[in-house]
Amino acid sequence: MASEVLYEVDGKVATITINRPEKLNALSLAAQFALHDAWVRFREDDRVIVGIVTGAGERSFCAGMDLRRGDGLPPEFEGRSPDEASGSICPREYDLGKPLIAAINGYALGMGAAIVMQCDLRIMSENATIGYPLVRMGMMPGALHDFWMQAPSVIAARALYTGKAITADDAQRAGLVNDVVPLGDLPAAARALADEVGENAPLVIQAIKRTWDTQQEFREVKAWREFNRLSRTVNASADHDEGIRAQVERRSPDWQGR
């Protein structure tokens, strides 16, 4: 069975690929644990200066959580903390010390959007979208404060309140991504950007990264506290369960507001 997350090194660049193309790279619990392991490996890998994260195939970077994955831990991950899985969508929390480029090939939704918004640099293919559709499923969008802080307020508000995804052109106009390129050019464009970063002094790159992450953390502390409090309330609600059932059953949800 192929790994659900691939880790490859070429020169100074590590590429982390979410490898579930048949599921639009939606994250199973196994994929989240594997992604956790990939972030740790990237952090500890002295060979590399910069990383690229992307999705396998041409349709999707990561379509969010796999709603059909079940609640139990896969046998190969028994005994490991569930926090490793839940934290994997927040690469900044791993104190990577190296810049990370998102090569967004198609859907970046929910958990996928959370990963993208925690990357330092972003390149989108022309067919790509970024969005938080979880409001339509009675679920709290993950790490939404990154989106609030980086997108113009009216764009962030519309995307979060409606669940409608942002196109590549709109994301570029809003300053959410560095470049938009044809789908076939995306790997080369991401690699060119990685090489451009990798040509510079490693100690300076690492210092910029740590300084950047530190100022982000100062801004995020209160937002994280409130997000965690509200997420517990939302995730324990009847509407949360109804939203997931409706999505799996392909029907409109019957919201109760409780």
Give descriptors for this structure:
258 residues, alpha/beta, 2-enoyl-CoA Hydratase, Chain A, domain 1, six-stranded mixed beta sheet, four-stranded mixed beta sheet
Concise synopsis of the structure shown:
This protein is an alpha/beta fold. The protein has helices at residues 29-44, 82-86, 111-117, 144-150, 153-162, 168-173, 186-198, 202-235, 238-249, and strands at residues 5-10, 13-18, 50-55, 60-62, 100-104, 107-109, 121-125, 129-131, 166-167, 179-181. It has 9 helices and 10 strands.
What is the assigned CATH homologous superfamily?
2-enoyl-CoA Hydratase, Chain A, domain 1
CATH class, named Alpha Beta
Please write the string of helix (H) and strand (E) elements. EEHEEHEEHEEHHEHEHHH
Question: Using only CA atoms, what is the Rg?
Answer: 18 Å
CATH architecture: Alpha-Beta Complex
Tally of individual domains: 1
Q: Total helix count?
A: 9
Into which percentage range does the β-strand content fall?
Answer: 15-25%
Q: What's the CATH topology name?
A: 2-enoyl-CoA Hydratase, Chain A, domain 1
- End-to-end C-alpha gap: 41 Å
* Average pLDDT level: 89
Structural shape = globular
Strand order of the largest sheet: 1-2-3-5-7-10
Number of strands: 10
Taking the sheet with the most strands, its summary is: 6 strands, mixed
Runs with pLDDT <50, length 5+?
none
